[in-house]
């Protein structure tokens, strides 16, 4: 009887230790462990438009984190979306590439119709936050 109780107690302790170890591995080092996040998968995108607000098909889109000088590719989404001119910049899968306070991202793209290039900067946060989010910057990038 005592042995059965002993085995149950040891099993319970091992299970608790296992769960606590798993939850610590899911949090990046230095992030608060008491943060409760939703399971929503967030993406941030921009629209490339002309002066009249019409969608513009683009090529050679590049997203560069100006803090790290590292190119970012939206993970888990692919880049171009189903709508012309709409481009996914980052997703929650890119959180670790971004700081909690936010990083300036330089976006460059070329209009496929006339080969004109446009550049814009938006600020996006990630890091210890639950999801990526835009801190500042335009939703539409306009080709002049």
TrEMBL record:
Segment forming the signal sequence: 1-23
Domain of life, source organism: Bacteria
Record keywords, A-Z: Signal
Protein name, UniProt field: DUF4382 domain-containing protein
Organism, as annotated: Mucilaginibacter psychrotolerans
Organism phylogeny: Bacteria, Pseudomonadati, Bacteroidota, Sphingobacteriia, Sphingobacteriales
């Amino acid at each position: 009887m005592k042995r059965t109780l002993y085995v149950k107690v040891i099993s319970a302790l091992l299970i608790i230790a296992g769960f606590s170890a798993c939850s610590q591995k899911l949090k990046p080092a230095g992030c608060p462990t008491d943060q409760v996040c939703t399971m929503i998968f967030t993406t941030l995108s921009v629209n490339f438009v002309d002066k009249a607000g019409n969608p513009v098909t683009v090529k050679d889109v590049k997203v560069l984190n100006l803090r790290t000088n590292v190119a970012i590719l939206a993970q888990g989404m692919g880049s171009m979306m189903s709508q012309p001119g709409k481009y996914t910049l980052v997703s929650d899968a890119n959180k670790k590439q971004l700081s909690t306070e936010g990083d300036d991202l330089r976006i460059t793209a070329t209009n496929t119709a006339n080969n004109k290039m446009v550049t814009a900067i938006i600020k996006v946060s990630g890091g210890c936050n639950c999801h990526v989010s835009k801190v500042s910057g335009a939703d539409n990038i306009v080709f002049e």
